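BUG: 3D viewer hangs when loading the predicted structure for this chain

Environment: internal workstation, default settings.
Expected: structure renders.
Actual: progress bar stalls at 90%.

Input used:
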Amino acid sequence: MVSDVPAAAPRINVEASIRDLRHELRLMLGSLDTLTARLERMDRELEILEGARSVRACKPSGPERFRVAYNLEILPCADGSGSIQVAIDGGRRFYLGPRLAEVFQFIASGEKDPAGADPLVGWRSKEEIIRFLQGPTDKQFRADYVIGMVFLLRQALCKAGYDRRLIQSNKLKGYRFAFKRGARGLLPPSPPEW
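Structure tokens produced before the viewer hung:
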């Protein structure tokens, strides 16, 4: 008859485990930084290539090569999730989930240049966008998260048939939505079509 002998709990070297996990975390963060830099480079190259070819995969809804939005319609989804539907200059509506909706609205609401030299909404730096996302919470965001969000916003514009370059980027200034406020500005919400 086999006697029930209690098995000893495995010994864990807590300090070594913490050290190993921190090392692995640093390696992954380094890889993420490398991938982010690669994404930025690819995005810049795509902009150059799209401008160079005559037939673009993401055709803008108008004849202008570099579009500017004059009307922006933002409709909150009825489910209360924070998602929105967006229509630009009366064009096709597209959907943005809660986090993309926050970033899009923040980028599109930059302060206009008080001198009047630039008719478009103001630029939002990566740091401003990170502070906005953090809000009153202690949650930390990195610059590569902002880059990823801008990439996703451009993809959403492209899928809806808009020119992805409506989200403008500048290495020193940050990001903005090419929105010329003043003429007709933000359209009042119309009832949802769904």
